[in-house]
Amino acid sequence: MHSLRKPHWVFLVSSLPVLLFTLLCYGEFSIIHTLLPPASLALWKLYGLALGVLALGTALAGWLALARRQPLGLAFSVVQMLAYSLLLCMLTYHTDELLPRSIPRWMVPTDLTLIAWTFIMPTVAHAVLGLVARFTPDGQPQQVAPNLGLAVAVPGSWFIIYLVLSQAASAVRWNGAAAVIMVAVLVLSTLSFFFFLVRAVYVMTLRKSEFWAKTGLVWGIIITIVLPVLGLAVNSGLFFGGGFRSSSGIFGNFSSPWFYILAVLNGVLLCLPGPGAAPLRLLLFFGRSVLFGYTFYFFLVFLPFLPLSIPAIVLIGLGFLMLAPLLLFVVHVRQLSEDVAALRLAYSRGAVVGALVAGLATLPLVVTADYWSQRRILHQALAYVYTPDYAQAYRLDSEALAATLGIIRHHKERNWDLLTGSQQPYLSVYFNWLVLDNLMLSDQKMAELEQVFLGKVAEARPGGWVPTPSPPAEAVLQKASATSTYNAREQAWVSWVSLEVANASSAVPDGEYRSSFTLPPGCWVGDYYLTIGNREERGILAEKKAAAWVFAQIVNERQARDPGLLSYLGPDSVGLRLYPVIGSEVRRTRFQLLHKEPFTLRLDGQELALGNEQEAAAPAAPIAAAGSGPVYLSARAKKRLPLVQRRPYYHFLLDASANTDVGQLPAYQARMARLLSQPLPGGAPPRYSLVNTYTTSVPAGADWQPALRQAPRTGGFYLSGAIRRVLFEAQQSPAPTYPVIVVVTDNLQKAVLLDADFADFASAYPESEVFYVLGADEQPEAHSLRSRSRLSLPDSVASRVTPAVRAWPSAAQPRAYLPDNELAAVVPGPGQPVPTAPTGSRWLDGLGLRGYSQWQSFHPESTERNRVPFIQASFRAGIMTPATSFLALENEAQKAALIRKQEQVLAANASLDTMEDTDQRGPVETPIDGGVGLLLLAGAALAAWHLRRTAS
């Protein structure tokens, strides 16, 4: 304990936490400062100055003591304790002024009051412990009873005062001076309570040989075993209708059996007498060092709440359990110090310090290894489903994934407090940072992963699985107009589309306008504006998920903020959202389109002619990007390509998932035989693939029936992945044959069809968008690959097959096949690289971005590697891509929040989410943005430093 008076502790316990607290506050202040009223700004500056003066003064005093090789003095500890206690009280009192209710809470996801207590309380605790050491010299006799009596007197006096004030509440007249005196009394009495309580426990440990011989073992069991276990049980609600496995608690979720096991094991090791044999003492010391991480964790968790223990004792009676981590911490540190002193007589300083450091690192490393394993299995599963390498074979541990998903589901329960409810204090933050990159995994993706790897069947959707439509827009398009200018230098059209929207009814208080439109190949979105008040605000080109998150949070405010969002909904489909449209007001917005050919834009029933053939005709020759980049083919240029007619073949996708059995083999055989009895004209031999979690191709010429009979029935019927693999092979190796996909299953509802469509793979099926489902009725049912793939098609649509396609660049050596229609086309180059430098032509920049986007659709494994360069290229060109969005915002605070969220998203796995869905109401944010991890590291270093210094 006396080593706490060494000056080194000032920098570890005070300067470092205060610096981290300052950085966290500055991060929040930099977002919201433009929204703060003058009074709040003045308070922020005042408290910043006060904190800076205190931190600088504390560090200077510590440096002087270090230079003089003197322990920290009495005056230093007293001033440190009182000054920081006063600062905490004043910060708590002015919380509402520092963060007015007008500040949207999604912009300030952290609880500044809570983190103030979390980061400043170590300084106050250090001062109290330093005073205990100062007034408890080892060489002088000390008494336990007086200290315990004085400690008990504080809550007793509080109880008496509470009774008096509750009886005479109406007679009490509070003024400013009386309130200040009352607060001062409460603060001083609280500090006195902890001083005498810690001193009593410390004296017990000093007099261990005498005290333990009489009653010490009983007290040891009470402090190290009974109180911790009882505290865990009370926290989980064991005595209030809960149980040991309750998923939430008063101060956090400690329902795991490991908390109870470690509590008992820790207490047993601390109560064991020190063995005489040095090896056994070293082994016991290592065990105590390992479990010090457990003791320190709960000390850290309850440190901000220690001042509440006295009123909890007065009002509830069980509040003394909040003191258990503090008492255990004092006993544990003292025991380790005693072990170090004893072991130094038998072992070298290096051996003792090595055992100590290894023990202290064990629990953090075990937790980190466990979380890292969960991260690895989760990211492998995400890669397989959302960013797969179609040329690679996968095999994942489904049982480990199931356990990881269960933990993620538990961690994401709707409770955003740092230290209460269903979260594990600090550990949940660490888990979210290490496993989920400070983002989240939506319920939809969790369900999809369970369907793919665990074979869970998706819930039936009403109306034949029609996706739930978005709610109808409250606002409608009233007027649309367009102006087009031909840029001779770029040889492209620049068109501006202007929209005026208003509510269908003036009674709508705050409607939202939603619309979508389709762009032809060779057309890019180049700019966006939204009129806000009397000014026209230019949209920010931002990462797509970050922009959608910020838009959702602003809409959730329902405070008439003004965001507008323009983003891709599909390869060629663009969505526009505008909020709010209030009453009868007319909102105006406009966006820029860059296109090579004139075309007609259809938007909400209105048609706008963009460009004209008389001024600039469509190019008749292919237009290639720099290097081996993509090629743009106008409709005229495409018509000059040779026509070829390829032979079709059936590619059967056989359901081999966990929800099928071998007994279905005869039924499959009968259905397929009937279909094959009517062969495709000029068709090639059929091919077969077995589909469960993975897609297994049956070798050409081999019998599919034994393969299906022997296939393991595991996982779900991952049809989406199977279809994409078939289309990938067709697109990667252009051949004179093409697949006609036939899905063989008893019920399409069992299929894990994650995609609403396969429009991004359209270049792989130029002849026909139709695939078939061969169900129990033995009648092939047609479905579309291009849109709403779960719904069956009418016969008139299903019969549309293009007899011939265009071969690019020649029929002899085709690199791609294109549909023979009146639309232009963009053909990606081989091994398409991410565009790096602007070409000087925005349209050509857009062509390079579009070509890479199309190439990446077939090579999603490159997403993690190229996502950031691709988005940066979009920013440089000012061209929107499927990975970016235009977002118009009302104020600078919203823009700063967007930048912060964008940085977070770009640093995370591309398959993780920012919210449950784009219409989510309510923020999704991590408390203190991972800052607690820094505090944990600082605390661990702090404890290791103290014990190492004791060893010396």
From TrEMBL:
<feature type="transmembrane region" description="Helical">
    <location>
        <begin position="216"/>
        <end position="238"/>
    </location>
</feature>
<feature type="transmembrane region" description="Helical">
    <location>
        <begin position="312"/>
        <end position="331"/>
    </location>
</feature>
<feature type="transmembrane region" description="Helical">
    <location>
        <begin position="144"/>
        <end position="165"/>
    </location>
</feature>
<keyword id="KW-0812">Transmembrane</keyword>
<feature type="transmembrane region" description="Helical">
    <location>
        <begin position="46"/>
        <end position="66"/>
    </location>
</feature>
<feature type="transmembrane region" description="Helical">
    <location>
        <begin position="351"/>
        <end position="372"/>
    </location>
</feature>
<feature type="transmembrane region" description="Helical">
    <location>
        <begin position="73"/>
        <end position="94"/>
    </location>
</feature>
<dbReference type="InterPro" id="IPR027550">
    <property type="entry name" value="MSEP-CTERM"/>
</dbReference>
<keyword id="KW-0472">Membrane</keyword>
<dbReference type="InterPro" id="IPR013694">
    <property type="entry name" value="VIT"/>
</dbReference>
<feature type="transmembrane region" description="Helical">
    <location>
        <begin position="177"/>
        <end position="204"/>
    </location>
</feature>
<feature type="transmembrane region" description="Helical">
    <location>
        <begin position="285"/>
        <end position="306"/>
    </location>
</feature>
<keyword id="KW-1133">Transmembrane helix</keyword>
<feature type="transmembrane region" description="Helical">
    <location>
        <begin position="114"/>
        <end position="132"/>
    </location>
</feature>
<protein>
    <recommendedName>
        <fullName>VIT domain-containing protein</fullName>
    </recommendedName>
</protein>
<feature type="transmembrane region" description="Helical">
    <location>
        <begin position="258"/>
        <end position="278"/>
    </location>
</feature>
<feature type="domain" description="VIT">
    <location>
        <begin position="463"/>
        <end position="595"/>
    </location>
</feature>
<dbReference type="InterPro" id="IPR058207">
    <property type="entry name" value="PID_CTERM"/>
</dbReference>
